[in-house]
Amino acid sequence: MNRENKKKSFEKGYYKTHACNDSFTCKVCGRVVIPEGAGTKHRNHCPNCLTSLHVDDEPGDRQADCGGIMEPIAVWIKKNGEWAIIHRCRRCGDMSSNRVAADDNPLKLMSIAMKPLTSPPFPIERIEKMTRLMGGDGAIE
């Protein structure tokens, strides 16, 4: 990389408009992550464990000083039907959303999506009593 291009890569917002073709090793699972296969030119998380690093304050700016592990905590579906992963930084608690990549682990994505159903915020054995309290008959059918 010549000196001019090296300087350019550190300008604020550079990665918003330029592809990031760098490979990296995931800090959580140790997998070597390559940009090919992602279906995007902006690879920002591990396709195996879906974790990322807290490097951006705004997408692509590389201005965050934190550097913490961004843990996948949820998925959501955008208006256009595209899935996105919600990440929360283990160090500072900051949250961000990242597009799902073509080669992301489908089992990990589904386990994150199903988490609210498999770990409800109340004891599942009390659901009948709760539905009766809300005016239902309490039957689960």
UniProtKB/TrEMBL annotation:
Domain RNHCP: 22-110
Provenance organism: Acetobacterium woodii (strain ATCC 29683 / DSM 1030 / JCM 2381 / KCTC 1655 / WB1)
Underlying gene: engC2
One Pfam family hit: RNHCP
InterPro entries noted in UniProt: RNHCP (IPR024439)
Superkingdom as given in the UniProt entry: Bacteria
Protein name (Swiss-Prot/TrEMBL): GTPase EngC2
Lineage: Bacteria, Bacillati, Bacillota, Clostridia, Eubacteriales
